[in-house]
Design goal:
Elements: H1 9-19, H2 23-28, E1 32-37, H3 39-42, H4 51-66, E2 70-75, H5 78-86, H6 95-119, E3 124-129, H7 131-135, H8 137-152, E4 156-161, H9 175-185, E5 190-195, E6 216-218, H10 222-227, H11 238-250, E7 255-260, H12 266-270, E8 278-281, H13 289-296, E9 302-306, H14 308-317, E10 326-331, E11 338-342, E12 348-353, H15 358-364, H16 372-376, E13 390-392
Parallel strand pairs: 1-2, 1-5, 2-4, 3-4, 5-7, 6-8, 9-11
Antiparallel strand pairs: 7-8, 9-10, 11-12, 12-13
The structure holds adenosine-5'-diphosphate and ligand VHF.
């Protein structure tokens, strides 16, 4: 088990080891894997729940499990299954109807996974998360402990977004992001995104029959964002969120594979190093768990506009952000909230946890740190954001 603020030494050693292997070999040696199964696939493109498909994926996961690999499932499909159970042919637009469909459908999903894993003598656990659960540090640590305990107990967690209670403010919105955050949370070695396409193409194959498959790339290659489009009718995020998920997963050193769940023995073959689908590789060693948590947060409470000097020291030296380098403050944030830092043209530079409320930050902006106490009557810290709580984007 790792400490709370840093990636475990063991994980760093594993990632160093991974760097010396090909990505496919590293996949074959993965000890902890998050398998995300998308709506487009699970619901057989809208024809109810693909029970036989789930049965086959579960068989493969059980075989990995028997080899000692820890597998965590992130499964979409609640809304689509709910729609089918309620006899609705079109996805409703109203929030409450979507929530109702998710509540009905999640039952069906859970039951289906439970039955199939039961055939292999494996116990499952249903975990429904909202973005809020992972953005509040205390709840994040709590979720991590619960998941680690389940994995240690050799239970297979089956995770989905808690669609019945989410509102737009606390929504992941797509399960690719959820899968990546779970991979971060558990320091998984690999994230397998199973979908209805063979992988990431250089254009959306639904619209461009000449599109060709990208077999391997660095997760943070900017070209990927350009080629990845939105999703189909059932899926939410399309390839755009899969690419973003791969970048998030890479922050904790996890490899991502995007592959078709309809390939025979897809999980078994990927986990034995076979080459198919799109492999997206982490470029860097994992970053500290706290920074990773910051990187995974989507909701910022405010914006600090930095001058050119501050942008320079943050991006080239990894320095803390001092009030003297801040030009403008927007938003109503409190001490400890997540804020974003932008340059004077509005370009996003960094995100971090701020040491002062918006009101107090506004009073010290542009000042050297030795004037903080005289200005506010107290000093919390000489930095507006300490470098340990700051992540450059
Ligand atoms: N460059 C691309 N390569 C492959 N698929 C793409 C690309 N851009 C957009 N897509 C779309 O992404 C869809 C898969 O995403 P999505 O529908 O969200 O599925 P899932 O539910 O599995 O997450 C594909 O059906 C395809 O139409
Ligand atoms: N949580 C939602 C799924 C969200 C979703 O469709 O995500 P994805 O499969 O990534 O496109 C559900 O269970 O219906």
């Amino acid at each position: 088990m790792t400490g709370e603020s840093a990636v475990s030494e063991q994980k760093v050693a594993e990632v160093a080891e991974l760097g010396s292997q090909s990505g496919r070999e590293a996949l074959a040696n993965a000890r902890r894997v998050v398998v995300k199964i998308g709506s487009a696939l699970l619901t057989d493109d809208g024809r109810g729940l693909d029970d036989a498909g789930i049965g086959r994926w579960v068989d493969q996961i059980a075989a990995l499990h028997a080899r000692g690999v820890e597998v965590i499932v992130v499964s979409s499909g609640a809304i689509a299954v709910g729609m089918s159970r309620l006899g609705w042919s079109a996805r409703p637009s109203g929030v409450h109807e979507l929530q109702a469909a998710a509540a009905v459908g999640q039952n069906g999903l859970t039951q289906c996974y439970e039955e199939h894993f039961h055939r292999h003598g494996l116990t499952t656990a249903q975990i429904l998360l909202t973005h809020d659960d992972l953005s509040n540090r205390k709840r994040y640590l709590n979720a991590r402990s619960a998941l680690r305990t389940l994995v240690d107990l050799r239970v297979v967690p089956v995770i989905n977004e808690n669609d019945t209670v989410v509102t737009d403010e606390i929504r992941f919105g797509d399960n690719d992001t959820l899968g990546a955050l779970v991979a971060n949370l558990l320091e998984a070695d690999a994230l397998l995104l199973l979908t209805d396409q063979e992988g990431l193409y250089d254009a959306d194959p639904r619209h461009d029959p000449a599109a060709s498959l990208i077999e391997e790339a660095q997760a943070d290659d900017p070209i990927l964002v350009k080629v990845a489009g939105g999703g189909g009718v059932l899926g939410r995020g399309g390839m755009a969120t899969k690419v973003r998920a791969a970048r998030l997963a890479a922050r904790s050193g996890a490899l991502t594979v995007i592959a078709s769940g309809r390939q025979p023995e897809v999980i078994t073959r990927l986990a034995s190093g076979e080459r198919f689908g799109t492999l997206l590789l982490p470029e860097h060693a994992p970053i500290a768990a706290r920074k990773r948590w910051i990187a995974g947060q989507l909701q910022v409470r405010g914006t600090l506009t930095l001058d050119a000097g501050a942008v320079n020291v943050l991006t080239t030296r990894g320095s803390s952000l001092l009030p003297v380098g801040v030009r403008k403050i927007e938003g109503a944030f409190k001490r400890g909230d997540l804020v974003q830092c932008v340059d004077e043209s509005g370009q996003r530079i960094a995100k971090g946890l701020v040491n002062y409320s918006a009101e107090d930050a506004g009073r010290i902006l542009g000042l050297p740190s030795h004037q903080i106490e005289a200005t506010l009557g107290y000093i919390e810290a000489p930095e507006l954001i300490h470098r340990d709580n700051l992540i450059v984007l």
